Automatic annotation (TrEMBL):
UniProt enzyme class: hydrolase
Gene3D superfamilies: Leucine Aminopeptidase, subunit E, domain 1, Zn peptidases
Name under which the protein is recorded: Probable cytosol aminopeptidase
Recorded superkingdom: Bacteria
Organism: Micromonospora fulviviridis
Pfam families per UniProt: Peptidase_M17, Peptidase_M17_N
Entry-linked NCBIfam families: PRK00913.1-2 (NF002073)
Alphabetized UniProt keyword annotations: Aminopeptidase, Cytoplasm, Hydrolase, Manganese, Metal-binding, Protease
Chain coiled-coil ranges: none
PANTHER family noted in UniProt: CYTOSOL AMINOPEPTIDASE, LEUCINE AMINOPEPTIDASE-RELATED
Reactions listed under catalytic activity: Release of an N-terminal amino acid, Xaa-|-Yaa-, in which Xaa is preferably Leu, but may be other amino acids including Pro although not Arg or Lys, and Yaa may be Pro. Amino acid amides and methyl esters are also readily hydrolyzed, but rates on arylamides are exceedingly low; Release of an N-terminal amino acid, preferentially leucine, but not glutamic or aspartic acids
């Protein structure tokens, strides 16, 4: 299921003269220092709104304040223009306090653009006149605004059978006001934003799809079809091929479901071989997770349709890679299974022979993600990779440790730091975590090479146990990073910034930033 997409273009016309349904401007809240000599509650207009302010004869900020505007981040206040400018509505979006001597941070602009476009649902054409610097920071600011606008315009199509009068259609077209709409650098940022945001929205659509409509075979088919259309190489291993290949972990998890497991491999080869480096992306694709025999509580289980968010992110990122054509080889691996309780399910106490040949003692069938990922990681290392980035909604321990916005990162220290930097740059924060020796010791098995979780079922360091287990399947020569998105992969609260309720698309933009980083710096 594909949701409607907002289109994007640049304009350099005076914002006050644009024939649009609404014009978005930025407003800052004043600090105590700035308020000296100013009326209480006064606002500061952000750059880009000068012609709009002039049309209101200097009364724009005063009027917005009367309507309750404070300039707080993400706040959107709408004002009827009554003919003062061409657009019938001015929407003022809060940017927080004005940074001293600098433009707002990219993530501030990204969230503001998303919040404004989302708040203006029902409008056909919206223009953004937000602050864009004319210095070295200009590309990053424009990237943030364009990404935020496209992501904020997303709404899952859904399954309602009757018209919803109160449900307004997403904004169809966004115009971004820039100094020079023909500038090659600015146009390149638009092209990139469309590819990147398109990938994020595809990932969201897959995550939000009802789990009865996206079981492993249909998920694999959806990814494979999109990948072939994008020009990627595609290989799909069905249950027979998985059995013949010895993918014990994927098969064990998938054997309890009537919908058999899959492993999808997507390949991008740059022209001329690129810079010679090879990047592997691996994503967990549990299309629904009941916990299996170790069944989960009923409360909240419906959100386990999002347990394939890692695979959705990797598959979607590969589509963007095909469009952006970086100078580095990239291969995606998407192991897919449905974890169900049945007479054929794998059991606590089972010993599974993995693709790598290692034998794993199963203690908890709800720790299934690491089982399918271990096989995919081993395959990726066997195929050859210099860098391996794996992402998954792996552990509730990530949410407990870092909350619902910050991903946990484990693996090669240098690569974990690159992930953290990429997360900072894209607004998808991640924090490096350790892989202690005592956690590995706690996973010693009496009967196999390693137990799947702590042998005493101790949940201390639960997130770290997942990373320690996956490390066993990464070969020594491969730098790797495991990105646990159990929290940020799915947003169950109200919409905020450019996040809507449901799948977030995290960490698609982080993965693409990392691919660019490897392409540029090796």
């Amino acid at each position: 299921m594909t949701s409607p997409r907002t289109t994007l273009s640049l304009v350099d016309t005076d914002p006050a003269e644009l024939a649009v349904d609404a014009i978005v401007i930025g407003v800052h809240s004043q600090t105590a220092e700035q308020e000296s000599g100013s009326p209480a509650g006064a606002l500061l207009l952000a750059s880009g709104a000068e012609s709009i302010a002039a049309a209101f004869d200097g009364k724009l900020t005063e009027t917005l304040a009367l309507l309750g505007a404070t300039g707080g981040p993400g706040e959107v206040i709408k004002l009827a223009t009554l003919g003062t400018v061409t657009a019938p509505v001015v929407a003022a979006v809060g940017l927080g306090p004005e940074p001293s001597g600098a433009a707002p941070a990219p993530e501030t602009l990204r969230r503001a653009a998303g919040a404004a476009v989302r708040a203006l649902a029902g409008a056909a054409r919206v223009a953004l006149a937000l602050p864009l610097p004319d210095d070295a920071d200009a590309p990053a600011a424009l990237r943030a605004v364009t990404e935020g606008a496209l992501l904020g315009g997303y709404r899952f199509a859904g399954y309602k059978t009757k018209p919803q009068p109160a449900r307004r259609a997403p904004v169809a077209e966004v115009l971004v006001a820039v100094p020079d709409a023909a500038d090659a650098t600015a146009q390149a940022e638009v092209t990139r934003a469309q590819a990147v945001a398109g990938a994020v929205l595809t990932s969201r659509d897959w995550v939000n799809t009802a789990p009865n409509e996206l079981r492993p075979p249909s998920f694999a088919e959806a990814v494979a079809t999109a990948a072939r259309e994008a020009g990627l190489g595609v290989e799909v291993l069905d249950e027979a091929a998985l059995a013949a290949g010895g993918y014990g972990g994927i098969l064990a998890v998938g054997q309890g479901s009537e919908a058999p497991p899959r492993l999808v491999k997507l390949t991008y080869t740059p022209e001329g071989g690129g810079n010679g480096k090879r990047v592997a992306l691996v994503g967990k694709g549990i299309t629904f997770d009941t916990g299996g025999i170790s069944i989960k509580p009923a409360q909240g289980m419906w959100e386990m349709k999002s347990d394939m968010a890692g695979a959705a992110a990797v598959g979607a990122a590969m589509l963007a890679v095909a469009a952006l054509k970086p100078s580095v080889a990239v291969t995606g691996y998407l192991p897919m299974a449905e974890n169900m309780p049945s007479g054929t399910s794998y059991r606590p106490g089972d010993v599974i022979t993995m693709y790598s040949g290692k034998r794993v003692e199963v203690l908890n069938t709800d720790a299934e993600g690491r089982m399918i990922l271990a096989d995919a990681i081993a395959r990726a290392c066997e195929d050859g990779a210099d860098y391996l980035f794996e992402t998954s909604t792996l552990t509730g321990g990530q949410v407990i440790a870092l909350g619902k916005r910050i991903a946990g990162v484990m693996g090669t220290p240098e690569l974990c730091e690159r992930v953290r930097a990429a997360g900072d740059a894209t607004g998808e924060p991640a924090w490096p975590m350790p892989l202690p020796d005592d956690v590995r010791k706690g996973m010693d098995s009496d009967v196999a090479d390693i137990s799947q979780v702590n042998a005493g079922m101790d949940r201390a360091g639960h997130m770290l146990q997942g990373g320690v287990f996956l490390r066993e399947f990464v070969t020594d020569e491969v730098a790797w990073a495991h990105i646990d998105i159990a929290g940020p992969g799915y947003h169950s609260g109200e919409a905020t910034g450019y996040w809507t309720k449901g799948g977030t698309g995290v960490p698609v933009r982080t993965l693409l930033h990392l691919v660019d980083d490897v392409a540029a710096n090796g």
